[in-house]
Description:
By secondary structure, the chain is α+β, with helices and mostly antiparallel strands. It has two domains: about 55 residues, no CATH class; about 80 residues, no CATH class. It is built from three helices and eleven strands, in the order ββββαβαββαββββ. The site of zinc ion has 8 residues, from strand 6.
Amino acid sequence: MYYRIYALEDQWYSPSAQYFKVRADGKRFILRYDQADDEWTLQSAYDGAELFARSSVRMITIDAALVRAAEKVIETCEHCNPEGAVIPFDAVLDRVTGSDPSVTDYILESPAKCPNCRRDFLEKTLVEPA
Ligand SMILES: [Zn+2]
């Protein structure tokens, strides 16, 4: 799928990558650019309404150490346990980081892995906490 980018709204840096918040076709996206690998990845997509409703949203970059800490409090995910996994991974991140869920969004520097099936998951993947 291709989107035409209309506006660069924000950008910031983490130790391993550069992030861009862009607007394209009525949606907003967070793009991650890894300079070492010269690789672009799509981190998150929002529709306009969702982002406007949360104008005070705070982006937190989750580094590899925090990802590992969050994995420790997870048993399974929606792939290996569709019935038991009912909590989005970002709710686990709220707990691990002590952040206010209503104003916080997360950017994962490296994908988290399910401790049970080893699949990658992202902020909105459903998980079962330990
Ligand atoms: Zn799993």
